[in-house]
Amino acid sequence: MSAELLINITPSETRVALIENGSLQEVHIEREAKRGIVGNIYLGKVIRVLPGMQAAFVDINLDKAAFLHASDINSKLILNEETDQVPDIRALVHEGQQLMVQVVKDPLGTKGARLTTDITIASRYLVLMPNASHAGISQRIEDANERKRLKSVVSPYCDDKQGFIVRTAGEGAGELELKHDAEFLRRVWQKVLERKKRKQMKLPLYQDLSLSLRVLRDFVGIELERIRIDSKLTFDQLVVFTKEFVPELTPLLEYYPGERPIFDLFSVEREIQRALHRKIELKSGGYLIIDQTEAMTTIDINTGAFVGHRNLEDTIFSTNVEATQAIARQLRLRNLGGIIIVDFIDMHDEDHKRRVLHSLDMAMSKDNVKYSIHGFSSLGLVEMTRKRTRESLEHILCGECPVCTGRGNLKTVETVCFEILREIVRVNRAHDADKFIVYASNAVCEFLANDECHNLGEVEVFIGKQITVKAETMYNQEQFDVVMM
């Protein structure tokens, strides 16, 4: 399988596309304005101690001083003793003291950032704990055998100076992948210590990686043919980064100076737009309908125009098998997670059902995100789950429609007209008016003046008052006002 990364850089946004066998499989997007400082490590200076609040304010070279509570200070490092109670803040820090701290909460409004002295640095599968000496496993990894396996793999990397936690994403990770992560984190921590010795205070000792660097960290161990970047500045930064931390990727880096936008290669822009549509066409003529909700994602398969086989059962089976490939790709591309319900076209042959499930499992096996397929339910639906790793593509690129407010549909012109007629009668009964003016959208006004002119006339006779209809070009289809004159 051939794979490459395309990295598109603009001042406001970074986008990364993973291409496999000439087809877009994943898109990662990061907008500069939404990057926080959570995870950043600073060498700060205590500027004020507040005994009454059991807290201190720390200068980390931001606009506002950051907040450090006594409960967020690792007292063992300072007092060299274990204690069940939180010591008095005055025993832990004093004004003018330098502390290595990490941001756990971004500044909000008038409040500064929230800090801790318990430093952690995360990679794809592991979290480095410089102030610990043990191997921990995420509580979300429930399988006892897997927990035991992971602990046996990671424990040799721990010593009296540092420990590791296996993240939930590490479930199923191989020894080589975990080794790559541990070595990467050790190199990062060494750089942090070197900067601390130089008393680097104006800049972070460690800053959570930007997307362009993060994807290189996270794709360590994945076979890539090349990594193309359309920014010379970012390309140079990636060369420095990979030489220092992931040298095996340095030869794959390639600056892309082409006049054609890099995301026009492999039709990435077009595929991103298609990934925002509900309907996905299959080559055979069938299609998928994908609906994402808060609770779950539903996928419906239809044969459409596909009539390629002599009997209906074979046509249905072929469409379902083809759909499994499209489903796996769309889940990765749209980054859909949580509960997923797939409504395959009904099959009566049990062997066909088994082969469709096998095809779906094989297609999903290329996904780096953990998933599980639970087979056909009693209603003939396939239930599956896919781990949520980040916001879906739709949530990043789209917002709620101001017209339908997220419903996904609008009232018909006819429905709005009937609402207007009822509203006129209601207002007439409640208030004394000489005549009425109705303001509505062009489409609604045209419908009232033509298709519903008879009903409008009957309402005029019923209330004994004149009704005038006026179009408002700025009104959407559901908007209207009934004004008394």
Automatic annotation (TrEMBL):
<keyword id="KW-0479">Metal-binding</keyword>
<keyword id="KW-0699">rRNA-binding</keyword>
<dbReference type="InterPro" id="IPR048583">
    <property type="entry name" value="RNase_E_G_thioredoxin-like"/>
</dbReference>
<dbReference type="Pfam" id="PF20833">
    <property type="entry name" value="RNase_E_G_Thio"/>
</dbReference>
<comment type="similarity">
    <text>Belongs to the RNase E/G family. RNase G subfamily.</text>
</comment>
<keyword id="KW-0820">tRNA-binding</keyword>
<keyword id="KW-0819">tRNA processing</keyword>
<keyword id="KW-0698">rRNA processing</keyword>
<keyword id="KW-0255">Endonuclease</keyword>
<feature type="domain" description="S1 motif">
    <location>
        <begin position="39"/>
        <end position="118"/>
    </location>
</feature>
<keyword id="KW-0963">Cytoplasm</keyword>
<keyword id="KW-0540">Nuclease</keyword>
<dbReference type="Pfam" id="PF10150">
    <property type="entry name" value="RNase_E_G"/>
</dbReference>
<keyword id="KW-0694">RNA-binding</keyword>
<protein>
    <recommendedName>
        <fullName>Ribonuclease G</fullName>
    </recommendedName>
</protein>
<dbReference type="InterPro" id="IPR004659">
    <property type="entry name" value="RNase_E/G"/>
</dbReference>
<keyword id="KW-0378">Hydrolase</keyword>
<dbReference type="InterPro" id="IPR019307">
    <property type="entry name" value="RNA-bd_AU-1/RNase_E/G"/>
</dbReference>
<dbReference type="InterPro" id="IPR003029">
    <property type="entry name" value="S1_domain"/>
</dbReference>
<keyword id="KW-0460">Magnesium</keyword>
